[in-house]
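FORM 7B: Structural annotation worksheet

SECTION A. Query
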Amino acid sequence: MREVAVIGIGQVKVDESWDKSLRELAGDAALSALLDSGLQRVDTVYVGNMMSGSANHQQHLGAYIADWIGMRHAEAIRLEAACSSGSASFRTAVMAVASGQVQTALAVGVEKMTDSPGDEITAQLATAADADWEADQGLSFVALNALIMRRYMYEYGWGKEAFAPFAVNAHANAVHNPFARFHEPTSIEKYLKAGMIADPINLMDASAIGDGAAAAVVVPLDLVKSAGRRVIRVIGSAAATDTIAIDHRKDPLWLKAAYESGKQAYSQAGITPADIDLFELHDAFSIMATLSLEANGFAERGKGPQLALDGEITPTGKIPIATRGGLKARGHPVGATGMYQIVEVVQQLRGEAAGTQVEGARIGMSQNIGGSGSNIITHIFQTV
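SECTION B. Predicted structure
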């Protein structure tokens, strides 16, 4: 297998983009990544998306996006893995290039959600849960995460206020990210006063949906070295699954798929959690940020909130997370989220994360969660 590098990145602002169609959003991000890469064409285009068929009445996104960006005749495929669709497109690009079958690949994540009524989007998000045992019983994703968070608080004795630093950190970092949806800081007081959605999850525990797209160009590492360009190498790429229904898991407070994909990625990279300089985790809800830190070896079980309370998740902390706002403040256009995470890690390793730059960052990790932990994809990157 060949070593692989990221040579170009692109993204658009997460927002309510009434003046942009799905293909325009994807095209803007893709063309920005191509411009950044210095390439005019790629061999393959992989598009990550969850709900274009229902929200936009458009399937067949591979050819749809390839046509729009001038990549006609290139191989092009859409991939769906719920909220981890973006990372699925990137992992497919990595494997294609590493195999030697493909020389250059473009991975795009895109989602346009705000054109549809909120209740329809909520119903579509629930299709990533178990239709028989969760969705048909009236459980939305907010409700499922509320049940997990309530159990976590009960098992480990944490109060509601312990989760506030996750939102405070995310919003503080998003202030410096022009592509983030929210640019206002928040506070512990605002967190505690936020409206309740599904007890104990309030508005400040949950990420906001939006329209967005992000992209990256993947090539063989040798090609980048010979071109004399700045090199960000992919040193780990792994994926794992768990039961879709939470009640089928042996332990609902343990993200087994996060642990397994993280373990595989660490092994591929030849590193341990102590070597990670920043971690773009999937903070769709505060409880998911907590469980991700624990599953990936950054905190002991039941002690994830302590890292946040001690200030260790900030850009100057032990394990910086959500360094450009995360899902919470950058926004969560579901099929694009994984690609935003990857783009943000690359920005950090290039030294381009103005305002929240992690000093001396050389190794960064992204982890994208589909469903309530049923499909989790992990990538690790290193400057060369």
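SECTION C. Observations
The domain at 118-206+235-383 is CATH 3.40.47.10 (Peroxisomal Thiolase; Chain A, domain 1). The chain has a mean pLDDT of 96.

SECTION D. Sign-off
Analyst initials: ____
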